[in-house]
Design a protein that fits this description.
The chain is built from 27 helices and twelve strands. By secondary structure, the chain is an alpha/beta fold. The protein has five domains: 31-203, P-loop containing nucleotide triphosphate hydrolases (Rossmann fold, 3-Layer(aba) Sandwich); 209-273, Helicase, Ruva Protein, domain 3; 276-395, Zinc Finger, Delta Prime, domain 3; 501-572, GMP Synthetase, Chain A, domain 3; 581-671, no CATH class. Strands 2-3-4-1-5 form a five-stranded parallel β-sheet, covered by helices on one side. The chain has a three-stranded mixed β-sheet with strand order 8-9-10. Helix 6 links the parallel strand 2 and strand 3. Helix 15 packs across helix 16 (342-354). The radius of gyration is 43 Å and the shape is flat.
Length: 672
């Protein structure tokens, strides 16, 4: 081939497999790795853990195993590596474990890079079986190669199998002196308690928004990137306390803003990148809802959706603002959050002064349910619109006690926005108008026609003029026929004459509280019973709160608060015990009656199963037997002889007196 053809082949089509110049992008490391802490001094937000470890190392009280738990991105794996570095720290002047890692030691670089031979990192998500634990158990007997301790870092330890956990127990409880274990997990509840009891546990906290903003600002300064303060606050809120998430979002925001001329990370760009709602517009939406202006609220939601905001995210931000306004109302330091803009602080304080707790609480509950509806709806925007309609209509609804108070004052129950009246609008009486005292609840005197309310509305500290009253046609008075006489209401029975246990049982039966009645019958031993004061002894399996139950029932039914005391001495028999004893006496009396005794002797295999008093039952007095001699009206016999027609012999019993009415009844029975 000629030299020209060789050149043509080099420049022609095809893959160039030669060695290329290194690309600058291949050397780039993401911010989460580039600014990963390498010492305890670099950790943020974990001061309690650092203090505990520092004291333990200074006194030589170093544990054999550590358990690090927390949400994603708060530094569990990083802390494990720093702890391994502190355990194996060695320099020309320092030969003992220490937390002072300002000067890199002999093993520090390899440990932080994960390349040290004596610091073994294992991902339990991919090594879950007992076989992996057997390898650890077999290796712990050997001393470290170059470091002071052989450190095993097991990440996501909760994903180990049950057999793996059980296999680790003995080694974890009594490891060799040269072995240390460090575990990290996000699901601490899935770790067996037998493992936790062998470890020192440290809960790594979420990073607060203000501290996160400062941390992100320092990193942006080191990267020579200009970032707006509002953009940093957005990133801090979106990270939810996770440093790794915050750095990942910041990395993405820097790339998103690199196309601009000054490469400044702006809040608008972060909002578009994350699909967030504008906080100022969320506050406007909240104000429209509290005013009852449905049209403006729906238009604002549509506008935010058109620029890329997710409806569920908008409602979530709306709920967050409701929570913020509620906190401002009760917590003095709620406005000190550095992640809040000045506009959020000013308007939040204004809403907190004008909105009542019941309005904020009701809005919070409706938004919580609405967010779940939007997330599961096939059309999120339509579902969000319906949530806003409910929220604006309910903004000026009175509570049940307010409605009852208005009815008691002679007015009519207000329909609010949810009734059949006109829909709320910008000039309607919303929640803020009610909180400002629009006179909606003022009672009227006489049969006059009430005019529409004229509330004062406040928008960003500017007073809007009073809405012009709607011109309505004069009401036409139509003569009505005389109303038909209404029967007087039947007076409710009074229950203020409870003077005995029987009265209380009758009251419980009248109220159909069968469970309470059975508790009184079976577990109430009366010591003393006087109006307003009861002393009793609980028996059997009486509920522990029986005295409290009696107090509550009597208060509800009689309107009087009774004093109910319990004692462990004295007291009469319970109602059920009295009835059982009375039943035994009745059966004994029946068996002793001459007629019944003759029957029982004539029929050896028979027995009395029931004694009834129909007349007394008809009078509902079956629980109290008469004092007159026993005269049974009906006796149930369980068995008869095989030949009941046979006459009784002389030895069957005493002669029957046919003048005795009981005997006559018995003759009738035999002849039947």
């Amino acid at each position: 081939m000629s030299e020209e053809s060789d050149t043509a082949e080099e420049n022609g089509p095809g893959f160039d497999l030669g060695v290329q110049e290194a690309d600058k992008t291949s050397e780039y490391r993401v911010l989460a790795r580039k600014y990963r802490p390498s010492s305890f001094a670099d950790l943020i937000g974990q001061e309690p853990m650092v203090r505990t470890l520092r004291n333990a190392f200074s006194t030589g009280r170093i544990a054999q195993a550590y358990m690090l738990t927390g949400v994603r991105g708060v530094g569990k794996t990083t802390t494990a590596r720093i702890l391994a570095r502190a355990l194996n720290y060695e320099s020309d002047t320092q030969k003992q474990p220490t937390l002072d890692l300002s000067t890199p030691g002999i093993h520090c670089a390899d440990i932080m890079e994960g390349n040290h031979v004596d610091v073994i990192e294992m991902d339990a998500a991919s090594h879950t079986g007992i076989g992996d634990i057997r390898e650890i158990i077999a290796a712990v007997r050997y001393k470290p190669v170059s470091a002071r301790y052989k450190v095993y870092i097991i990440d996501e330890v909760h994903m180990l199998s049950t057999a793996a956990f059980n296999g680790l127990l003995k080694t974890l409880e009594e490891p060799p002196e040269h072995v240390k274990f460090i575990f990290a997990t996000t699901e601490i509840r899935k770790v067996p308690i037998t493992i936790l009891s062998r470890c020192q546990r440290f809960d790594l906290r979420r990073i607060e928004a203000g501290e996160m903003v400062d941390h992100l600002g320092k990193i942006a300064k080191l990267e020579s990137i200009a970032v707006e303060d509002e953009a940093l606050a957005m990133i801090a809120r979106a990270s939810e306390g996770s440093v790794r998430d915050a750095l990942s979002v910041l990395d993405q925001a820097i790339a998103h803003a690199s196309a601009e001329s000054d490469a400044t990370v702006r809040a608008e760009g972060v909002r578009d990148m994350l699909g967030l709602a504008d906080r100022a517009r969320v506050i406007d939406l909240f104000e429209f809802c509290m005013k009852g202006d449905i049209a403006a609220a729906l238009a604002e939601m549509k506008a935010q959706h058109d620029v890329g905001a997710d409806p569920a995210t908008v409602l979530t931000d709306l709920a967050d603002f409701v929570h913020f306004v509620t906190r401002v109302r009760y917590v003095d330091t709620a406005l000190d959050d550095p992640s809040l803009s000045q506009q959020q602080k000013t308007r939040g304080k204004d809403f907190a002064e004008r909105l009542t707790p019941r309005i904020l609480g009701r809005a919070w509950q409706m938004l919580l349910k609405g967010i779940a509806e939007v997330q599961s709806a096939p059309r999120p925007l339509a579902a969000a619109d319906m949530v806003l309609v409910r929220l604006t209509h309910a903004a000026d609804l009175p509570t049940p006690d307010e409605a009852l108070r208005q009815l008691a004052d002679g007015g009519s129950a207000p329909s609010g926005g949810a009734g059949g009246g006109a829909a709320p609008s910008g000039g309607g009486g919303g929640a803020m108008a009610i909180a400002a005292g629009s006179g909606r609840n003022a009672p009227t005197a006489g049969p006059t026609v009430s005019a529409a309310p004229r509330p004062q509305l406040v928008v960003e500290n500017e007073t809007v003029a009073e809405a012009e009253p709607v011109k309505r046609p004069a009401p036409q008075l139509v003569p009505q026929a005389d109303p038909e006489p209404v029967a007087p209401p039947v007076a409710a029975p009074a229950y203020d004459n409870v003077e005995s246990l029987k009265d209380m049982l009758d009251l419980a039966e009248a109220k159909r509280d069968i469970r309470f009645k059975m508790q009184l019958r079976n577990n109430f031993s009366e010591v003393s019973f006087a109006p307003g004061h009861i002393v009793f002894r609980p028996t059997g399996n009486a509920p522990k709160d029986l005295a409290r139950t009696i107090t509550d029932r009597l208060l509800d039914w009689t309107g009087t608060r009774w004093t109910v005391e319990t004692t462990h001495e004295g007291g009469s028999e319970t109602i059920s015990d009295q009835e059982s004893a009375e039943h035994d006496r009745t059966m004994a009396d029946a068996e002793a009656h001459p007629v019944v005794a003759a029957v029982l002797k004539a029929f050896p295999r028979s027995k009395i199963t029931q004694v009834r008093f129909p007349k007394l039952e008809a009078e509902k007095a079956a629980t109290i037997l008469p004092d007159e001699p026993f005269k049974p009206e009906a006796i149930t016999v369980d068995e008869r002889l095989d030949n009941p027609d046979d006459e009784m012999d002389d030895d069957a019993g005493p002669a029957l007196d046919h003048d005795d009415p009981g005997a006559g009844g018995l003759d009738d029975y035999f002849n039947s």
